Amino acid sequence: MTDARAHSAESFSPFAVSVLRAADRRLRFCDRGDMITRYAACRAAMCALTQVDTFYIGHYIGPTTLSIPYCVDNKQFLSADVQQFGPNGLSEYIRSTGQQYRYKQDDGRRARMGWSSGRPILDVLVVPLRHPESGEILGMMCVENSTADTFDGETARAMEWLGRALVWEMTQDRSFADDLGLYELYPELDSTQPRDEAEMLRTLTAELERMRLALHAIELPDTAELVEQRSALDEARASGERLHLRLADAMQTVRIEQTTPKDITAGLTTRELEIAMLIAVDGLSNRQLATRLFISEKTVKVHVGNVLRKLGISQRSAIPYIIGSIHPSATLKEQ
């Protein structure tokens, strides 16, 4: 083991290890492309480790442009923003050097040249978001505080680690999408996009379970200074349990409702339902339908078009399957 690795591994306190492990779980189990949850996981970890007034993530989209998709200032979520930066500011320093920035390096001169919350900034910590393979600087992660000397060495090392973990998950998303291209032609096959209430509830239940595991993994020292934090953590765990039970009840309700197929043929007129049944059971063509019903073939085409539209299908051959799911006793004609 190298000295640097040994120093890094031995430098974290037990509490920091607990917080970072919880963040690691949350980052690992996020759905592909769910960057907001990943940003929130990094912010939650930093807020657990130290006092944070402002937290934001920035991504470079050009040599002088920084996109800020996630910013929380004084516990308020701010709208996403795009900013231009000059050659002497903080954004250019991170992009060009790829080095960590701390307030004490220049008494906050670079930090004061950029975005400001309006409060005095007396401590700043910024780490670069670096591509793990190419080394390209993709963006930055920043925390600010109005109290001097808030961010110590352990905080800096923890944030460096969070930055690397975040970028790793980002690159996995991109590699997956670029290599496979599974959902470009068939986006409806993307299982991360819920199709109905049942899938949405399953997704929410899975996310809640991850949150519950992360909360239970956090262990706060039994000290008088952390009484309020332990109480808040216990309440968060209890809330998670209550919500889990409510979602379980909702899942059961949805399952019961879905056991009875919805009659989507209810919107058809009497004539349209008659035509749909003749197509499904007897397999009649438009000409045969016109003869059977004593109407013109043109009128039949109008009715068939209405049937397809109301059933939400585009092919005539799908009519027997729709009819069969709602009226299983019908003897369907093979198409």
UniProtKB/TrEMBL annotation:
Which residues lie in coiled coils?
A: none
Is Transcription regulation tagged as a keyword?
A: yes
Per UniProt, residues of the HTH luxR-type domain are 261-327
State the InterPro entries in the record. Sig_transdc_resp-reg_C-effctor, Tscrpt_reg_LuxR_C, WH-like_DNA-bd_sf
Mind telling me which SUPFAM superfamilies this protein's record contains? C-terminal effector domain of the bipartite response regulators, GAF domain-like
- Tell me which CDD domains the record gives: LuxR_C_like
Q: Which UniProt keywords apply?
A: DNA-binding, Transcription, Transcription regulation
The protein's name in its UniProt record? LuxR C-terminal-related transcriptional regulator
Native organism is: Flexivirga alba
